[in-house]
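Q: How would the structure tokens look for this protein?
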Amino acid sequence: MATPTGNGSTPTSTPAQTPSEPDQQQKQNLSKVLNSIQQSLGLLHQLHLTVSSFNMASQLPLLQRLNDVVLELEMLQKLADSCNIQVPMEVVNLIDDGKNPDEFTRDVINSCIARNQVTKGKTDAFKSLRKHLLEELEQAFPEEVEVYREIRATSAAESKRLAQAQSILPNGDMKINSEH
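A: Here is the predicted structure in token form.
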């Protein structure tokens, strides 16, 4: 067990943590938070049933359920402190407005699709322009276009070889080695 340091926090260093351990710990923390939320919802439902059928005889069960809800919410707060989840303000505003937060996700996805289509259209237009220019250049300067294609093929082969040597994908992304 870690001993508290002078500022009230506990040291977080552990011997030889692998990169997957923090992710696994984060998933466990999130799972605990989700379980606590479910428990809180169950306790709130029980409290609702007790309040809706309240009479003087149900005063003690009502107080016990209130205490259970408070304890569970305290536990939830402690568990939530161990999770690092960032929620966009737009989602919080949607929830405050009584709307479904899935609307935010849908809007973001639709926006990405629209931007992707615009980018794809531009890429296709440039490919078409390049093809057209090469056709025109080939009619006017056949030898130079042949030299250009040879240079381009050599350059592409060299780039591919370098990318493989450096673990870079053809689109410029890096390969992730998951063995560590």
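Residues 110 and 116 are 10 Å apart (CA to CA).

Residues 102-140 form the longest helix (39 residues).

Upvote if useful.
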